[in-house]
Specification:
Elements lengths: L1 H13 L13 E3 L3 E3 L6 E3 L5 E7 L5 E7 L7 E4 L11 E4 L5 E4 L5 E4 L10 E4 L5 E4 L5 E4 L7 E2 L4 E3 L3 E5 L7 E8 L5 E6 L6 E7 L8 E4 L5 E4 L5 E6 L8 E7 L5 E7 L13 E6 L3 H4 L14 E4 L5 E4 L4 E3 L9 E3 L9 H4 L4 E7 L1 E2 L4 E5 L4 H9 L6 E5 L2 E5 L6 E3 L6 E7 L11 H37 L20 E2 L2 H7 L6 E4 L3 E7 L7 E7 L6 H12 L10 E7 L2 E7 L6 H6 L6 H21 L4 E2 L8 E3 L5 E3 L6 E2 L31 H16 L16 H11 L10 H5 L1 H14 L10 H9 L16
Parallel strand pairs: 25-34, 36-40
Antiparallel strand pairs: 1-10, 2-7, 3-4, 4-5, 5-6, 7-8, 8-9, 10-11, 11-12, 13-22, 14-19, 15-16, 16-17, 17-18, 19-20, 20-21, 22-23, 23-24, 25-26, 27-28, 29-35, 30-34, 31-33, 32-33, 32-35, 37-38, 38-39, 39-41, 40-41, 42-45, 43-44
Length: about 800
């Protein structure tokens, strides 16, 4: 049944794809027609004028045989024939009477042709309103089309078949073949590669759909969805789940020059948000963080040699040069960096002298691969000395009392808070040439000085405070050590305090007032009497519970990486033998479960705001956190409310952290019955979509103000909320879900929209569920909610 529903959805999605490209209106390009590269700018346009085919002059002066959006000021190019061999003025593209279609220079030398022999029986050419240029026969059968030979862009109605690739441009202004390739492999895997330029061979696959034997076509339909499908029509996964109407938006999906695949939209109405002029905006993108994904053993990485990559707006990699280095090409941020000093030379005694060089600290910065030396020194000083004394060493990476030495040039540089340790960059002390004011280099210099000074000052201040605290504690109390222990190793760098057991025992008055209880833990109310006097919640894990050590570490490691207003803040922990406790901010209004089910019905608009806040917290965990986190146990009991009824997600004991190269994981079943996604029971990889499913159930509980399972329901079909909601959606009777809720009925349009969003979230196939970013956009009304497929019964 699931496969049948999937196939039905597939056919609905593909329905708008034309079976014959020439089925739409067109303006014939007759045999013998030609265009010349000159100042007349003559083109072959589509019937609506949306697209034009012609010879477009580039900033370098040469001409590109291309297709572009013709009704918007940007004139954005979507296809190019001779991107690596620009034509000169006077060159001609011609559709010959014998069916040849080629671009020749003024002397008649061929620059470009169809490549695989001319098709027989060509009767005419046509520029279609889809952005596809076709050669057709007398029967209007398509004999050749640009959609089959894309450059870096896909358009709505276009399909990418096995063996076909997109190749990025070289830079923002240079459209020649660049350093990245997207390819649907013959084995069914969709893979993003880094490439060598100009040899064009692949170096490293930095993202994969993991669909070996399944992926058959990438499709971009007229509803704005981009998805990978099997040969039988089953949808494998969405590359962009943010649909948009082609009637309202121009759209394109591009493998950009920085290696990120982005879905762009442009409003056709002439105005965009806030009355500003319309412009291309990003609707969706892959991968989530290219800086952390590229870890090849050689090659320039995401930003070029000696450069450092960090994530910017719309997932664009920000490329900066470290201290002592400047851009190779100031006009190309991905050109890499060159040293502004004379490097250490091994056969020059003066250059070998370590006193001429120093090491610049770059915290949370890594250059993976290309290590030529590794050892375990006696502390960081040993690592520093080894690099300074080694004429081959350009940089040392120090992490966990391990030291790796690297040669010049440096590859794959990236900076991120999730990266533990620091890089120690060697530069010459007496002749470093700084970059011009305002450059990335100068920004990095200032940043390094600020960070270094702040770290030194903070370390000194912390040492003084700790010394005074230890002295005071040892004199005032004759009991065990009252010092603040080092932070938990996995969360070094976060402001999380280590408590001793006696402190928390005193703060909770001997664990007197219980706030809540779970299978593995009990939560108590407390107060830090000797400090700010602020209220706290102390979670005491049951030492008899199975895997308590694993859950404790998971919760500390996971929430220690987060910082968001819709996540409960972890203040500290205690790890003393069997005593394992977690200290959280106190949430005075308890859980959403108590808020919804134990008192009179809460205000409709308050319930809506809780849904928004929970969605924002999940979106942060999935999309914005430095390391992607799957919560695994979203339910009303794990969403808490503070004094202003702001919702915050809690209880990360079952959470799963994904490595940068992971999109999913396999693990034993986690979560709570009724909220657990179907894939948990089918031995399928677990992705962030399990949280989307759980959120869909929670959303229904919030808007309907009733439990997922109501054993005392009057009618049998109302016992399980998700089943009842799905039935009401299919039958068009969604108002029955809130028949006695006047506030919800007064806002019935929004209520029905939320039910549809929930139905999308609880789809049986993870690939059909939207991501949390998309869910949040639908909730807030920034994008429309498409009609979801008819769901099956969901009982687990």
């Amino acid at each position: 049944m699931a496969d049948l529903c999937n196939m039905l959805l597939y056919f609905m999605l593909v329905l708008l794809l034309p079976t014959l490209a020439t089925s739409q209106a067109y303006l014939n390009v007759s045999l013998g027609s030609y265009l010349i590269a000159d100042n007349n700018n003559s083109t072959w346009s589509s019937p609506s004028g949306d697209f034009a085919f012609g010879l477009r002059q580039m900033p370098s002066g040469g001409y590109l045989l291309a297709i572009w959006f013709n009704n918007i000021p940007e004139r954005t190019i979507v296809w190019a024939a001779n991107r690596d061999d620009l034509a000169e003025q006077g060159s001609k593209v011609q559709l010959f009477a014998d069916g040849r279609f080629e671009l020749d220079d003024p002397s008649g030398q061929q620059i470009w042709n169809l490549g695989v022999g001319r098709p027989a029986g060509v009767a005419y050419g046509a520029m279609l309103d889809t952005g596809n240029f076709v050669l057709a026969g007398d029967s209007s059968a398509v004999l050749w089309q640009t959609f089959d030979e894309p450059s870096d862009t896909m358009l709505p109605t276009q399909m990418l078949n096995q063996g076909v690739s997109l190749v990025s441009g070289f830079s923002e202004t240079n459209l020649s073949s660049g350093r990245f390739r997207l390819s649907l492999q013959p084995d069914g895997n969709l893979i993003f590669y880094t490439r060598n330029v100009p040899t064009n061979d692949d170096i490293y696959g930095y993202w994969s759909s993991n669909t070996l034997g399944r992926g058959f076509q990438v499709m971009f339909n007229q509803s704005g969805y981009i998805f990978l499908a099997e040969k039988n029509g089953t949808i494998v996964d969405f590359l962009s789940s943010n649909g948009a109407s082609t009637g309202q938006y121009y759209q394109r999906a591009v493998l950009d020059y920085d290696g990120v695949f982005r879905h762009y939209v442009y409003p056709k109405s002439g105005n965009s948000t806030g009355g500003r002029p319309p412009a291309w905006s990003v609707s969706d993108f892959l991968p989530s963080n290219i800086c952390l994904l590229i870890q090849q053993s050689w090659g320039p990485g995401a930003c070029g040699f000696n450069s450092i990559c960090s994530l910017g707006i719309d997932q664009k990699p920000d490329c900066v040069c470290p201290t002592g280095y400047s851009p190779v090409d100031p006009n190309d941020r991905m050109s890499g960096c060159k040293p502004d000093f004379v490097a250490q030379v091994c056969d020059d005694q003066e250059s070998q002298d370590a006193s001429h060089f120093t090491l610049v600290d770059m915290p949370n910065t890594d250059f993976p691969g290309d290590d030529y030396g590794f050892f375990q020194p006696d502390g960081e000083d040993g690592c520093r000395k080894a690099c300074l004394d080694d004429c081959f060493c350009a940089l040392a990476l120090y992490r966990g009392n391990n030291c790796w030495k690297k040669k010049f040039p440096l590859s794959n540089g990236r900076v991120d808070v999730s990266l533990v340790g620091k890089s120690l960059l060697k530069i010459r002390t007496n002749n470093v040439t700084l970059a011009t004011p305002g450059s990335n280099q100068n920004k990095w210099n200032r940043m390094t000085l600020i960070i270094t000074g702040s770290v030194l000052f903070s370390s000194l201040l912390l040492l003084i405070i700790l010394s005074a605290f230890m002295l005071f504690a040892s004199r005032s109390k004759g009991r065990g050590s009252n010092t603040v222990r080092p932070l938990y190793s996995a969360v070094t760098g976060f402001n999380i305090r280590s408590f001793i057991f006696e402190e928390l025992q005193e703060a909770t008055d001997g664990f007197k007032e219980e706030l809540g209880r779970g299978a593995c833990s009990t939560v108590y109310k407390g107060s830090l009497k000797n400090e700010s006097g602020g209220l706290i919640a102390v979670k005491k894990l049951n030492e008899l519970a199975k895997d308590v050590e694993k859950e404790f570490k998971s919760e500390v490691n996971t929430i220690g990486r987060t910082n968001h207003k819709n996540l409960v803040q972890l203040l500290g922990y205690c790890d003393e033998g069997e005593n394992k406790l977690l200290v959280y901010e106190y949430m005075s209004n308890g859980s959403v479960a108590s808020f919804l089910f134990k008192n009179s019905r809460p205000n409709w608009y308050r319930r809506v705001e809780i849904a928004f806040s929970t969605a924002r917290g999940l979106c942060y965990l999935h999309e914005e956190c430095s390391t992607q986190i799957i919560h695994c146990d979203i339910k009303p009991q794990n969403v808490l409310l503070d004094e202003s009824l702001t919702a915050k997600i809690s209880d990360f004991g079952l959470a799963k952290i994904l490595r940068p190269d992971q999109t999913g994981t396999t693990t034993a079943i986690r979560g709570t019955r009724g909220y657990v996604a179907p894939e948990w029971f089918r031995n399928l990889p677990i992705t962030v979509k399990v949280d989307v499913y759980s959120f869909g159930v929670l959303l229904l509980e919030l808007i309907c103000c009733r439990r997922n399972v109501e054993t005392h329901a009057t009618n049998e079909n109302e016992v399980i909320l998700v089943d009842w909601a799905c039935d009401c959606y299919k039958e068009g009777t969604m108002h029955l879900l809130v028949a006695d809720d006047g506030e919800a009925l007064d806002d019935i349009k929004r209520f029905e929209k939320f039910v549809m969003i929930a139905v999308w979230c609880i789809q049986e196939s993870p690939s059909l569920r939207p991501n949390m970013k998309r869910v949040l956009q639908m909730l807030e009304g920034s994008v429309q909610v498409p009609l979801p497929p008819d769901p099956e019964s969901f009982i687990n």
